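User: Predict the structure for this protein chain, please.
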Amino acid sequence: MTTNPPQPAPEQRVSGPVSSAPLDALPEPGQRAAAPSREKPAAAEPGEPAAPEREEGGQTQVITRERAEPAADPAGLPAADTNDHRQAMLSYLGVPFLGPVIPLGIYLTRRRASAFVRYHSAQALNLSITALLYTVCILILATMLALDSIVVALVVGVALAAALWLATLGYVILAGSRANRGHTGRIPGWLCATLVR
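Assistant: Here is the predicted structure, written as structure tokens:
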């Protein structure tokens, strides 16, 4: 059974202008070159592979590598654990049924503990407050229409309220599933005004 050797990490390259002149570190003609150091390179940290060495002209060179940093989240939020994902999702799922009660409770209790939960609970709170403001506007419109005809007021008011509730429910499900997977996303501004940060 054969195993493939591990692939080496790419060497760090220095950017900048390339000069055709000899390196500054090389001795001038007539000067004596410093003796190469026979010290061994520092031991690698546990779990880190040792830096490879390269032999060139009797001198040992140690090639250094930089560790790859994990990609940062577009919103700039640190990674969250599974409990944070669930609380962020729960803040969205309470919006269509209980309005701002659940998002406000999660926002007030977890805003300093987790930036991820704070982001999602604030967005869920903004969504629920905006939906409440739209509902008040629909009630005002329906009341004005009721002065002329109650049937027209009911038809228009119920149709607008149903459309608002379905749009809110759709974006709540989408944002809640993103939060459960650990992602961030913005709900459109026409449905979610930024009132709480």
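The CA atoms of residues 28 and 192 lie 69 Å apart.
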